[in-house]
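FAQ

Q: What does a record look like?
A: Structure on top, sequence underneath. For example:
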């Protein structure tokens, strides 16, 4: 029985109790059925038979009394009294017919059937003589009626009365026997019920003790395990609730820190955005400066070319002026020679000498002018050479500036790219912080819900404790 589970034991226990109750019910039902048959026989056969026969006997006596009333001289001579007696007589016969039909329809034993068959002709004979008696009365034949009543009608009445009383006595006997049989059956059934009840109670007690021990042992083990379980359950629920509260508080603090970090990163994003804009403007200015520098470089290059051409032109001009000076000097010498020769000659030569003197003066002036022009050209050439040197130096500076500004332009491009990447990275950081903040808030909500669930679990555990106590009380465990 130890290997059977609790449901099988319960089903078995109730099945045994059901069999005991069913056995008692079957025995009781059989006894009640037998008593019912006996009572049905008494109530539906014997009692109606006795009642119907009693009605016939009573009606026969009433008819006999009315008959003797008719024979009283005072009644016979009073038509009104006779009319009342006729009505009484008719009603008595009607009642007798009803009782006759009722008894005739009932089942009968062989003995009753024999008496009934003997009663029917005797009753009809008496009924016929009584009818003749009534006819004599209606015709006013009192003497004939009296003679019939004292003779033939009286004999028929006595025979019918005797058989009717015998039949009634027989039915009373049957009724008494049925009564005794029913009482005996009731006593027997009572004994059976008492014995069956006692046996059922004893068997119920025996099986109850067996099944009680079989039930309570696993129930007590279950109660013990449940007690340990709900204690651990409550302790775990308290730990979960405490951890959930701590997690909720920590998550709330984390969410606050994340919000602060998010505001800081937003400010940093603003600064980086401004730096990116400044770098963008710096790049734009650097690009514009490079364009201007390249334009200035081109102008200086053209100026260098022009100064070089001017220098070459000045050299050519200086050569030309030197040539002019040499020509003027030669003209001066020729004019001087011509003047000397003209002075030696005649007066015509004097005029020519004057002309030669003028030519010599012009030559000297041309020489002086060429000399001055040469000086100016040399000064100009020096200035042009100095300007060319300055243009060369400026052009070299611009080349150095261009070579130095090119990395700066690259740096500005790199700085702009870095600033944009920083802005994108900070934006991603802000997004990540937003996700972290949202996750932290959700974790805080989940932690609070977990704490609430843990508290509910604790409440359920307390309810389980009460249920376990109730099981202890039901199982009779006082430990």
């Amino acid at each position: 029985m130890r290997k059977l589970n609790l449901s099988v034991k319960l089903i078995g226990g109730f099945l045994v109790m059901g069999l005991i109750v069913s056995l008692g019910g079957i025995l009781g039902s059989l006894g009640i059925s037998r008593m019912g048959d006996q009572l049905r026989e008494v109530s539906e056969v014997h009692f109606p038979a006795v009642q119907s026969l009693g009605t016939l006997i009573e009606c026969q006596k009433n008819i006999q009394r009315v008959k003797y009333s008719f024979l009283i001289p005072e009644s016979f001579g009073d038509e009104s009294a006779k009319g009342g007696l006729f009505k009484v007589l008719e009603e008595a016969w009607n009642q007798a017919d009803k009782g006759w039909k009722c008894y005739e329809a009932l089942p009968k034993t062989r003995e009753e059937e024999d008496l009934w068959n003997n009663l029917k002709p005797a009753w009809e004979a008496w009924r016929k003589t009584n009818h003749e008696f009534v006819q004599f009365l209606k015709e006013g034949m009192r003497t004939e009626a009296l003679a019939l009543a004292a003779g033939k009608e009286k004999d028929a009445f006595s025979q019918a009365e005797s058989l009717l009383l015998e039949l009634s006595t027989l039915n009373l006997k049957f009724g008494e026997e049925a009564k005794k049989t029913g009482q005996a059956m009731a006593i027997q059934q009572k004994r059976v019920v008492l014995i069956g009840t006692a046996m059922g109670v004893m068997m119920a007690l025996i099986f109850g003790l067996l099944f009680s021990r079989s039930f309570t042992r696993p129930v007590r083990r279950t109660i013990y395990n449940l007690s340990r379980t709900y204690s651990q359950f409550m302790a775990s629920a308290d730990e979960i609730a405490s951890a959930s509260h701590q997690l909720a508080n920590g998550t709330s603090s984390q969410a606050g820190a994340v919000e602060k970090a998010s505001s800081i990163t937003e400010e940093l994003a603003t600064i980086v955005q401004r730096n990116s804009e400044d770098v963008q403007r710096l790049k734009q200015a650097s690009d514009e400066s490079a364009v201007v520098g390249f334009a200035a470089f081109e102008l200086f290059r053209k100026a260098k070319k022009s100064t070089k051409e001017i220098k070459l032109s000045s050299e050519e001009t200086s050569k030309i002026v030197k040539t002019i000076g040499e020509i003027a000097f030669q003209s001066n010498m020729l004019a001087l020679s011509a003047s000397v020769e003209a002075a030696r000659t005649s007066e015509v030569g004097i005029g020519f000498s004057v002309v030669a003197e003028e030519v010599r003066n012009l030559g000297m002036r041309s020489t002086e002018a060429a000399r001055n022009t040469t000086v100016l050209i040399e000064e100009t050439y020096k200035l042009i050479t100095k300007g060319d040197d300055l243009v060369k130096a400026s052009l070299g500076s611009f080349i150095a500036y261009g070579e130095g500004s090119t990395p700066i332009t690259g740096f500005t491009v790199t700085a702009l790219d870095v600033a944009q990447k920083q802005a994108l990275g900070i934006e991603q950081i802000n997004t990540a912080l937003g996700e972290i903040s949202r996750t932290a808030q959700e974790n805080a909500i989940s932690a609070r819900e977990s704490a609430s669930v843990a508290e509910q679990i604790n409440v359920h555990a307390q309810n389980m404790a009460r249920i376990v106590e109730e099981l202890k009380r039901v199982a009779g465990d006082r430990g």
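Q: Is there anything notable about this one?
A: The chain has a mean pLDDT of 76.
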